Amino acid sequence: MEAMSNTCFLVSMNLLLVLFFLLKPNHTMASDRLSLGQSLSGKQTLISNDGTFALGFFSPGNSSKFYIGIWYNKLPGQTIIWVANRETPTSDPTTSKLQISDLGELVLLNSSKSLIWSSNSTSKATTAILLDTGNLVLRNDSTSEVDLWQSFAHPTDTCMPGGWLAVDKITGEYTKLTSWKNSEDPAPGFFAESMDPDGSNQYVLIWNGSNIYWTSGIWNGHYFANVPGTSDRTIFNLSFVDDKQRKFSSYLIKDKSFITRFVVDSDGQGKQWYWLSDRQQWQTVYTQPLAHCDVYSLCGPFGICDAKNLDSICGCPEGFQPASLKEWALSDWSLGCSRKTQLQCEADGFLPMDNLRLPAKPKSFKLRRYEECRDACLNDCSCTAYSYDNVCSIWNGGIRNLQQLHEGDNGGRSIYLRLAASDLPSSSGSGAKVIKVVLSSVAGVVAILFIAYCLMKVYERTKRAQTLRKLDNSLVQFSYTDLRRITRNFSEKLGSGGFGSVFKGTLPNSNQVAVKKLEGLRQGEKQFRAEVTALGSIQHVNLVRLYGFCSGGNERLLVYEYMPKGSLDAHLFLNESTELDWELRFQIILGTARGLAYLHEECRECIVHCDVKPDNVLLDAEFNPKVSDLGMAKLIGRDFSKVLTTMRGTIGYLAPEWIAGMPITPKVDVYSFGMMVFEVISGKRNNMHSEDGSMAFYPFWAAKKVVEGGSIVSLLDARLKGVVDLEQVTRVSRIACWCIQDLESQRPSMGQIVQILEGALDVNEPPLPLSLQNLAESV
Ligand SMILES: *[C@@H]1O[C@H](CO)[C@@H](O)[C@H](O)[C@H]1NC(C)=O
Ligand SMILES: *[C@@H]1O[C@H](CO)[C@@H](O)[C@H](O)[C@H]1NC(C)=O
Ligand SMILES: *[C@@H]1O[C@H](CO)[C@@H](O)[C@H](O)[C@H]1NC(C)=O
Ligand SMILES: *[C@@H]1O[C@H](CO)[C@@H](O)[C@H](O)[C@H]1NC(C)=O
Ligand SMILES: *[C@@H]1O[C@H](CO)[C@@H](O)[C@H](O)[C@H]1NC(C)=O
Ligand SMILES: *[C@@H]1O[C@H](CO)[C@@H](O)[C@H](O)[C@H]1NC(C)=O
Question: Which residues form the Apple domain (predicted)?
């Protein structure tokens, strides 16, 4: 609706239309454009043609300042993708004006008509148009297809599909993303992402324009080496162009209903977000760098980064306090910690701190004794810390990137931090502990709200009669009659396993579901409900979503999202199927690893799946993998292992410690995952594989090949016809081999596996797992 454009008024002198405009509240302009002579103020907005995006004044969080920004018009909340005047807010939007100036620039004037922001565009424009991609463009009406200026070329912290990161080889200008200072201040923060300033074909995350702390890896023709996830052409179309004028990287999304954006967050991480429409919330697909403490100067000067501290990742050492509590409360730690007492120079002392990763680039020199190192620091009033390890290392000024390590981490060192004598703990022995500043973070509040919400839901459900209820974003409780109707009296069986049979069903809203009838369940109804509720709260792109359940009398049923391509085993082990090329197989391995890593490491309560195998990896219409049957171990309880071991085929996936009846840790999933990966590579069940006609346990044979450095090509499924990325196959085979090590401590965690698959970590040559030989003989 181009309500405000003159042509519209001229053409339609229609009374109804005029009335419509008169009656319309004046806070929407209901137009996607702003033309010369018009202005935008107060609550007025531009809405893109299809309604996806809106532009107008907004005020972030509790801030009292106003900015011109673009946000998703149809999504709840206000997710900002672009800010015009990020450094020059206005306090009164009703008297401020966004308009096209006489010079043809887009400008923002404040109450006293002073210019506070300008597009600074050089070509004279007559119209600003908000496109359906979220791009704001300036055009001249008579040459309307030419963008004289566009917001995509001047992004703030977000790169939208269709947007780009570029370097202009002629002007030397970079199109880069710069983080907000914090959630309430869009002014440029310390973190930015851009093409490599050194000119290589990669992009980098950089702190304050000078310290690179993450690199994408060099473009290899298909993807950037350290972010192979983006090679997935089923979703992303990533491109890299290097011509005479520009070098740039851009991405497009194939499926227009897939809402996604890439953001350099004010916590220093680059994050790809996407919108979960059924949960009505944003979810990250990947973050870079993965380890949050790897972000340069995340905790500022004298701050200590501790990834394991859930209250606040940044803390201050003893004798220090947050430099600004206000910013600290907004998770903006960039100002770091300040001393409680100023230093006195000669009268100062040192606070010993243990098991830290120390900042790079100290002044180092060889000294024979620890005392000499200490004196060297004490006698230099600008020295703030020293560390001695045959070499004396000395730091001056504000120390950045101190990182707290924990038991089991390698490379921990001790450092001695200079403090005013009065701030030293009275018994300043070597055991002095770092005091963490604990502030109730936003995360904490959310967690409490979430728990309260869950309790409320459970309470509500137990009170309700058993009829079909559609509650948004939460589990649906079905009655048995409902499920009988939905599955047309359990007529279409999708499969059956150790825990019961699965049937296809169609909900009244015509969504398809898979209904699982649990068998052999002796759990009480109350406990079942509690477990199921917990399961319902676990949601991840690579985990099959639980929609609802039915629990009445002796019946226990679970209702899951329906996965059109069925389970992975059908695609792997049926000869006719040729659909799984290497790229898809790699994506399936990676997605499965992500799902399990989420279960192990990111859920509120760590869950061990206990039954990882191709039969439990389901594929959606685009072959994205989702792990199914999670939480069965808890639901089925003690009978679980009996069910598993009596199921043929499963035994080959069980870790030795499980078979030996020892306590179970997440590493049993790692073991099964490794076994599964071998099957994805070979396209055959492990225990049916033979070499030279003689029966041999495939993983043993494959592991030998990997360890002895034989030709990996002979491991491959013949259907792949050798069309693979050999480097990836090597990487994946090595991971699989590490996963099936006899000692669980030698196996990597699922989180590490994801990092290795994504190329963020390297993987060494694994040793040969010996117990495989026994297994090989017994199968
Ligand atoms: C705004 O301030 C109030 C009171 O200080 C606080 O409870 C609330 O969490 C803040 N909201 C945001 C979005 O920061
Ligand atoms: C408008 O901006 C000018 C220049 O930045 C400033 O001097 C003036 O105080 C502002 N007026 C108001 C009402 O904020
Ligand atoms: C436009 O130019 C002015 C003057 O050179 C400068 O102060 C301002 O930051 C520029 N604005 C943008 C958005 O680049
Ligand atoms: C728009 O473009 C046309 C053709 O290039 C030019 O003649 C005209 O002056 C431009 N209009 C403005 C307002 O710059
Ligand atoms: C960031 O860089 C600027 C310009 O190089 C420099 O002046 C400033 O001191 C740096 N900030 C910090 C906190 O190091
Ligand atoms: C991917 O994007 C590039 C450039 O934007 C385009 O030329 C190409 O056709 C696209 N490929 C696919 C498969 O969509």
Answer: 345-420
